[in-house]
Amino acid sequence: MKALFPHAAMSHGITVRVAASFLPEQSQPEAARWFWTYHVRIENGSDETVQLRSRHWRITDGRGGVGIVEGEGVVGEQPVLAPGQSHDYVSGCPLDTPHGSMEGFYTFETADGSPLEVRIPFFPLAAPATAN
């Protein structure tokens, strides 16, 4: 059985863990649409309280096309994490190819207003093989 979060990266004492799942019921291969959900867990292992301010995703499709998604917070939230706390959320990603990948970073702010760039690990998006 796969680990619950097979992809992880740590920056500034903050660990970002990711697990992606292909959703066949949301996908339409005949229309060149494949869909995944990804579950992210952010763990504050540092010794200071931080707030997630923004996200920057680099999404690459199976042809090497790159899309950048940036914005405030995650799924409408800007969680504050005290030392030892974690935050989980789930989001989704459509692609027009059956394979791709995601990676990026979050920008956190410390109590004194200093920004911290925290890496989101690279993770593949791969639909199961289908008969032609």
From TrEMBL:
Highest taxon listed in the record's lineage: Bacteria
ApaG domain sequence ranges: 8-132
PANTHER family tied to this protein: F-BOX ONLY PROTEIN 3, POLYMERASE DELTA-INTERACTING PROTEIN 2
Listed NCBIfam families: PRK05461.1
Protein name, UniProt field: Protein ApaG
Gene giving rise to this polypeptide: apaG
